[in-house]
Amino acid sequence: MQPEKPIVIRKEVVRRGSADEFLKGLWRENPVFVQVLGMCPVLAVTNSAINALTMGLATAFVLLLSNLLVSCLRHYIPPQVRIATFILIIATFVTVVDYLIQAISLEIHKSLGAFISLIVVNCLILGRAEAFASRNSIGRSLLDALGMGAGFTFALLCMGGVREILGGGTLFGVALFADNYQPWVVMILPSGGFFTLGAWLLLFNRIKQRQQRKQPRLQARLQEMGSEQ
Amino acid sequence: MNDLRKTLEISTSPHIASGRSVEDIMRNVVWALLPATAFAIYAFGIGALLTLSVATLTCVATEHLLCRGGGRRSTVGDWSAVVTGLLYGLTLPPGLPLWMVVGGGVVALALGKYLFGGLGYNAFNPALVGRAFLQAAFPAAMTTWTPALAPERFQVLPSSTLTLPFMTPDYSLTAADGVTGATPLALMKFDQQPTGTYDLAFGFTGGSMGETCGVLILLGGIWLVARKMMNWRIPAAIFGTVIILSALFNGLDPARYPGPWFTLFSGGLMLGAVFMATDMVASPMTSLGVVIYGIVIGALIIVIRFWGGMPEGVMYAILLGNALSPHIDALTQPRVFGYKSGLKSERYHEDYRQ
Amino acid sequence: MKIIASDKQPAWIVYRALVGVGLVCALMIVSVFLLTLSAIEKNRSEALAQAIFTVLPGANTKLAFALTGGEHFVVADANTDASDAEAVIHAGYGAHGQLIGVAIEAQGMGYQDTIRILYGYIPDRQVIAGMQVLESKETPGLGSKIETDKSFLKNFSQLDVSLTAEGSAIKNAIVAVKPGQKTEPWEIDGITGATISSKAVAGILRASTRRWIPLVQRHLQVFHAAGEAHSDS
Description:
The complex is a heterotrimer of chains A (229), B (354) and C (233). Chain A is mainly α and 229 residues long. In chain A, 67% of the residues lie in helices and 2% in strands.
């Protein structure tokens, strides 16, 4: 046996910069394409870009406010009742959003239907409250919510855009093709949501794999450069 | 370890290799489909010939490219892609734009077969997966039927066939009078207008290209059964269920429910029962399971046709049957010799997990 | 990580958290509700008015009427119990308070789910002058054409619902026919690829007109009088 060498594990620095706190939700830890959270709205209301955008913004809004409130109250909420309290807070903001959307446009409210109320059970929001906002400062929680909300909206738009273009030949209601474009009705139907999500996940995993393959080479290059200096 | 393997080869039964291969069976299925294919071309003209060739070529090419792209040996040589392509083509309405034919063919092979792991692993009949996708994506085009036996079918292509990709098909020039035909099922369902059994059985009606002539499809099926390349219990169970149920309801209310002969020879029932439901991979393996599977499909066809919103339900019935078949298999495992019957399911699940 | 303290929290801390958060939330909901109430009601009534004026061309004011006791129409106001939506109809009036027609809501089963429609009846000519789909979940691109297809909607600009001589029933029931085969004024041209949905609309109209048109025709005086009174005040 060789003499035991002390193994040095380099601890990854957990503290991140503010920009990184925001960007992680948008890309590296994207709630939909990486964490695969909140599938109910992702599949159900992304049949047009405008629905996807509204849903994304509504969720982001609820996420932002609930993260803010949870972070503010984090010292006053005992762990035994934290889930109940978080849900209460989230449900409040969902109700608020529901009223606001009704006040802005009944049309959008009608097309989103029950899914606004279902933001309550979007595990993304409870997840962020539990895993992040209840343990971090107000500023960081807000940044986290902004990033995750933006990432969620971005993902929903990716879904809604593809589905509306293929399923209706329009984007945000603007016709993109000639009059006799044949819409792929299936894309607007629920099954189209699964097809589109599958395709996007395929693409994202492909990109991730590529990056991971590049990673060792990149680190080797960096080390070389370091030793040269 | 390596030396041991060289001296003694251990394998499970059966130990006698038969000369029958996948390739052999698949080629025979193609032969069995030829009468129906020939009739399709006779009834729908050069448009059908073109559509069927495109459907088959698309499936074969997709399989080849996917195998290549995935770094595998191409499995085109086993003829299964040809069978899928031909069957898929036969279920399409004549005059379907070729770009839709290509799209559905790619979905059939990629989504219905390759994604599950290729031949032997597909949970659903790939041809029907392709058709189901088209039915959901382009419901209007998939339910517009150019009439059979049009006088100029050997000279001109239906105008809709050559529609540019992503464009809406134009049916106005298809039929001489600008009116497209309805299938016997649609006539019955929406207008209570029955079609004669003779016309139905010999295919002088509108419908999908390969489904109209029930007699020729049966002929192909009988040939396959005679060569022991098809499980006769599946179509027999489907036919039996359909005949009994439709006779029953027809007896109760003849005005609303069609009789057994109409039900048997209309729509895709014949083609589906003989060539689609018998897919060796997607149907159960036990003898009892196969009968249950057939009864389930037959009953579903009747339910969808009689009380559903659509006139035809064979495709969905078979796909649902496919989805059930692993469970039917699990429930109908034969008693293992030496075991009490109560233990069978436990044992089966143990084996299944491994 | 202060929230993960010992399990032996004093009870009052738990109560403080729950009651406090509950109060904050309740306050927030109530205030937002009050703030948005007027906007939401305005949106609702605008949507309704817009639909009514669409199906009754020429109308620019409206009055709601409730059917009481199955036989008498009274002007519905905020106090009238309008829980039974089918029992409320809207009369549309022109610039000088003259009755243009009545808008009636109807619903029935479509291909996917219930279809709710609003149609306008013109008593002078005994025709339906417009139809709008209020709510439907028909297949997008196919059945949903009942909401958008121009040639289908044109069916309802002049749809005959004239009554029999004694005024108790409709002479010719509304029927849907195959696309392009409309020959009579009470027929509706169907939509290619949306046979079931277009037939469903015809069926809803048939059932609703059978019930309402004779009733409305019998009580026309009520609607006329209410309009005159309304424009005077």
